[in-house]
Amino acid sequence: MTFPLYVILIAYIVVFIIYLIFSAVLLYHIFRFGYWDSSTRLMVFLYFTGSLVILISTIVYSMDIDWSESITLFSNVEFNFSID
Amino acid sequence: MDPYKYFSDRRPNEEIVLLLRRHWHAIARYFLVFILEIVLPIIIFVIFLRFSEFAWEKGSPISVLIFLSASSYYLFIWLFFFHHWIDYYLDVWVVTDQRIINIEQKGLFSRTVSELNMDKIQDVTSEVRGKMATILKFGDVHIQTAAEEKRFIFSEIPEPRKVATKITELHREAERRIRAHRPGSQLHNDHSSDESNVSRTF
After folding, report:
1. Which residues from A are below 8 Å from B68, CB to CB?
2. Angle B80-B85-B86 from CA coordinates, rounded to 5°
3. DSSP for B112-178?
4. CA neighbours within 13 Å on the CB side: how many for A67?
5. Least CB–CB distance from B59: residue in A29, A40, A65
6. What pTM, to 2 d.p., does this model score?
7. How far, in Å, CA of B154 to CA of A60, rounded?
8. Fewer CB atoms < 10 Å away: N or C end of chain A?
9. Cβ proximity of B91 and B105 under 8 Å
10. A vs B: CB pairs below 8 A
11. If we measure between CA atoms, which residue out of A7, A60, A78, A59 comes closest to residue B65?
12. Which residues of A touch B83 (CB under 8 A)?
């Protein structure tokens, strides 16, 4: 199965958007029902920092990638859809 | 910090006596799992690199696939840990001098707030089960109301015995107040009668 590398990038962006949506819901909960006290501040700060570290390292890694290249997965698996 | 934010319908002269969350052990458990989820894939991957013919080459399609998969994985375990912390943080039991309020966050989109008047309490039981609970001093407090109503359970709270004792005291005071306000009642001066009732109730 061969497909261009940018398909993986699109899949990653979709996953990241889902992550952003869930993060927004969690942050809404914390601001709506919780306190803006020291433990909340610390956790929100850690959450943003952790997310940024993961995101920035991914961006840095992805900068030099040639996304038009193809990737072959499961090369030993053959699909035969022809009807004899 | 304003603990009264937890309930908007504060009654006149109502004072918060206890504000309870689960013991820190509850979130530490998730933290340990979180650390394992971070470290274990790295160890497995290093072992895989050591014993397989696969060579990590930056920019190669397979490396890109592995890196982006790892990035997604770490984003989501970070999200799940944050979710567990919010679940821990937003589960609160507020004990006032008039009632008990149970605020429970169930998942992302469900939040339950239930309350129980102090004078409706029939039985308070504290329970410490297991070695860990005994060492770290946490356990459950079960509060029984009338038979047809469900029990209130404070799960994994610190010092459950002290909390149960405090609730018992608050219940006695609530009963005393109610009797004192009954027309023609002289019970607010009759402490012996009050004590006998409490010992029967608990």
Report:
1. 8-9, 11-12, 58, 62
2. 95
3. EEEEEEGGG--EEEEE--SHHHHHHTEEEEEEE-STTSPPEEEEEEESHHHHHHHHHHHHHHHHHHH
4. 11
5. A65
6. 0.78
7. 47
8. C
9. yes
10. 86
11. A7
12. 22, 26
> What's the one-letter identity of residue B16?
I
Q: Could you give the count of Cα atoms lying within 13 Å of B23 in the half-sphere of its Cβ? A: 20
Per-residue pLDDT of chain A (84 residues; tens, 9 = 90+): 788 889 999 999 999 999 999 999 999 888 888 777 888 899 999 999 999 999 999 999 988 888 888 888 776 655 555 555
Nearest-CB residue to B86 (from A9, A26, A61):
A26
Structural domains in chain B, CATH included, are 16-202 (2.30.29.30)
Would you state the structure tokens that stand for residue B162, as one six-digit string?
Answer: 């002290």
Summarize pLDDT for B100-151 with one digit per residue, the tens: 988 888 777 788 888 888 888 888 999 999 999 999 999 999 998 875 666 7
A66: Cβ contacts below 8 Å, ≥ 6 apart: A5, B59
A29 and B105 within 8 Å at the Cβ level: the answer is yes
Amino acid identity, position B138: F
Q: What is the ipTM of this complex?
A: 0.84
Give the residue carrying structure tokens 């799992």.
B33
Residue B25 burial by Cβ neighbours in a 10 Å radius (0-12, 13-18, 19+):
middle
